[in-house]
Write a structure and sequence with these properties.
By secondary structure, the protein is mainly alpha-helical. It contains 14 helices and 13 strands. The strands form 6 sheets. Strands 3-4-5 form a 3-stranded antiparallel sheet. Strand 7 and strand 8 form a beta hairpin. Helix 6 packs antiparallel against helix 7.
Length: 426
């Protein structure tokens, strides 16, 4: 079994030896396309439903793995991962995408759309829509994608992205499983719009992608008629329209893992947009350090899912009966796979871009906790959901799925940084 301590940890080896084999054997659906994800925390398949949220992310991930196999960064069967990327993208394009640039939130295993909303609605989440864009964008970079399917995928990605942008702009976007109360704006909307738009722009250079990124940056940093979600040493997870709601729990709570994930996305977006990218503010490193300091659990180690803007247990006035309030209150102390995977990469990348700010030390701290806590002791991927003390926790914290995305994506990115360092040292 791979050594996960200190210098014994290799992101590429962990990806190839532990993470991908589990999904190879348990999740990859090479018959219908896509991936099965409805596993319990201990790895038991409970449903063959397919969430578009996960299918789009799987298509993108498979394309990235195939690309790294072609370039020699990974020693996996690149043709297999390429086939999975294209098959999943076609599954999403032909089964998940609905009229009007929407997507079905979930389908059955073969691709039949399933009702997910309270009144039988199929489309209930702009995040599912944007992750479909992400998957189509990733697959469109694969040289094996034949025409006319590649052009159809790119056109579909533009349509869904433009529809998502319009709904986020008009504040009519549905956001399951994270409902946004009227009178509040959420960080997740522009954040996901930025990531999907940047990846699509890198893939196709489309005008729809450029427009999406420009709007997202305006929402994040402030633009004409837009109040910023990010400010020096402070950020909003839910920003209230009214100052009267600023002391509510919705306004006061923070999600440190989200902020750290967003910061690396901003750096990636700059690289994807090239000469058209706007300079990032010089206070971003301080904001990252603020998120790490607020989120770190001094008693048990690791990063808490939710915290108050001043640290500690999320506090503030309650509207009552709000499902997002209940989510924050019931899961704030959990230790989650995605938070720690994203923090591992964010701190590593921030250390690369902002040396001398303390990110090297934070990266070591986060990495040590993550590798001591989440990987399954028997080598079966990660036990993704933990309680505050780090013990396995059998509960749903967002979608009822085991996530194939955050861990593998982090390891892909960390492996690239490691290979860059080795190449530079030669």
């Amino acid at each position: 079994m791979q050594d996960l301590t200190g210098s014994g940890f290799s992101p590429g080896a962990h990806l190839q030896d532990i993470i991908l084999p589990w999904w190879d054997s348990n999740g990859a659906d090479d018959l219908h396309g896509g991936v099965l994800t409805c596993f319990s925390n201990d790895g038991v398949l409970e449903s063959s439903d397919k969430y578009t949220w996960s299918q789009g992310r799987w298509a993108w991930l498979c394309a990235e793995i195939a690309a790294d196999a072609r370039s020699g960064l990974l020693t996996v069967d690149g043709d297999k991962w390429s086939r999975r990327a294209l098959q999943t993208a076609e599954f999403v394009r032909t089964h998940s995408v609905l009229e009007g640039g929407l997507t079905a939130f979930r389908t059955d295993q073969a691709g039949g759309p399933l009702p997910s909303g309270p009144n039988g609605e199929l489309a209930t989440s702009v995040f599912a829509d944007l992750f479909a864009v992400l998957g189509l964008a990733g697959a469109a970079t694969d040289p094996a994608y034949p025409e006319p399917a590649r052009s159809a995928a790119s056109a579909t990605a533009d349509e869904v992205l433009a529809s998502s942008l319009a709904r986020i702009r008009s504040r009519t976007a549905l956001t399951a499983p994270y409902p946004v109360r009227p009178g509040f704006c959420d960080l997740a909307g522009p954040m996901t719009l930025l990531h999907a738009g940047s990846e699509l722009y890198k893939s196709t250079g489309s005008e729809a992608a450029r427009n999406a990124v420009a709007f997202a940056l305006g929402q994040l940093f402030g633009g004409p008629g837009q109040a910023p979600m990010l400010q020096e040493k402070q950020w909003w997870e839910f920003r209230p329209d009214s100052v009267q709601d600023e002391e509510s729990l919705l306004a006061r709570h923070r999600t440190p893992g989200h902020l750290l994930e967003l910061l690396w996305m901003l750096i990636h977006s700059q690289e994807a947009m090239g000469d058209s990218a706007a300079a990032l503010p010089d206070w971003l490193p301080g904001l990252a350090l603020r998120a790490l300091e607020l989120g770190w659990d001094e008693e048990h180690g690791g990063l808490l899912r939710y915290v108050d803007k001043d640290g500690g247990v999320p506090a503030g006035t309650l509207f009552g009966g709000d499902p997002y309030e209940e989510l924050v209150q019931s899961t704030w102390s959990t230790k989650l796979w995605w938070v720690h995977a994203e923090a591992m990469y964010a701190t590593k990348l921030l250390a690369r871009h902002y040396g001398g700010c303390g990110f090297e030390e934070w990266n070591a701290k986060v990495t040590d906790y993550t590798l001591a806590t989440f990987p399954h002791p028997g080598g079966q991927e990660w036990t993704q959901i933990r309680d505050r003390q780090g013990a396995p926790l059998d509960m749903v914290v967002a979608l009822p799925v085991k996530d194939p995305f955050h861990i593998a994506r982090t390891l892909v990115f960390l492996n690239r940084l490691e290979k860059d360092d080795l190449h530079a040292a030669q």
